[in-house]
Amino acid sequence: MIELSGTAYLWVKALHIISVISWMAGLLYLPRLYVYHTAAEPGSELSETLKVMERRLLRAIMNPAMIASWAFGLALLAHLGVEAWADGWLHVKAVSVVAMTAMHMAMARWRRDFEADRNTRSDKFYRVANEVPTLLMIAIVIMAVVKPF
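^ that's the sequence the OP posted. Answer follows.
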């Protein structure tokens, strides 16, 4: 357990929320770029522009935001202490965050496919994939705020 003072706790919590919002923005936008990218002819000016946008979004925003979300989240978890793991809501939240991270990694893999002009997935696939972070976010927020069990 890490004991954070009242002010330190609020700063860590604020930074966690800011980083999660940034991460979510990327998780919601990147699959939308992939939808547009599926319609672009490989090697075209549009395709090359989308490659730059996707790479910058992932590397400059999403990766740092994910790392910050994890770091500040783990600090908040350490503040709660081991006894918090007795609550079921924390287990559901933890599994959802791990799933969100797995989704992030999948999006990074898809970006590499587009970068190499070897995407085989349809725009429908990316439209459905775009919904996954939303569903995970809903579960995470409900677990963190409502703590239903």
